[in-house]
Amino acid sequence: MPLHMTKIAFSAESPASLRAWLESHPDEARLTTRYLPKRHEEMVGGSLYWIFEHALIGRSPILGFEQRESDGRWHIRLAPKLIPVVTKPKRAHQGWRYLKDEDAPRDLGDGESSGDIMPPKLARELMKLGLV
User: Domain of life here (predicted)?
Assistant: First the structure.
């Protein structure tokens, strides 16, 4: 089973703007990180799960990692698409974190929409109350 990662959708105004940014890259989208994950080989074939408003809202398949020559930082190479998942509360964090396959939310099925799933703000409030 592949290993996944989570990352905050920093500067995204909405899931739609995140989707637009990803889809604006024809072949692959790239994120820059300071360090190569130690378990990067396990993550190829996994996904980057996006956190928006304290909830996992979608994922982008990880294509690989590539070092930038100019400053030694690394690119996380992503498929330029946002696959919606069942909304799952997730606390914000800096950088990225590993996510095991068994802890990852499932993709939304055909006929399901994110409107059928609990809104992220409501999920966050219920999580604070210990109800989710």
Answer: Bacteria
* 8 A C-beta contact, residue 76 and residue 59: no
Contact 52, 120 (CB under 8 A): yes
Model confidence pLDDT, tens digit, residues 69-128: 888 899 999 999 999 999 888 888 888 899 999 999 999 877 666 554 566 667 667 777
Which residues span the domain enclosing 88?
4-128
Structural domains of the chain, count: 1
When computed from its CA atoms, the radius of gyration of the chain, rounded to whole angstroms, is 15
Q: Which residues contact residue 34 at a Cβ distance below 8 angstroms, ignoring those fewer than 6 apart?
A: 73, 74
Phi, then psi, of 86 in degrees rounded to 5: -60, 125
pTM value surpassing 0.90: no
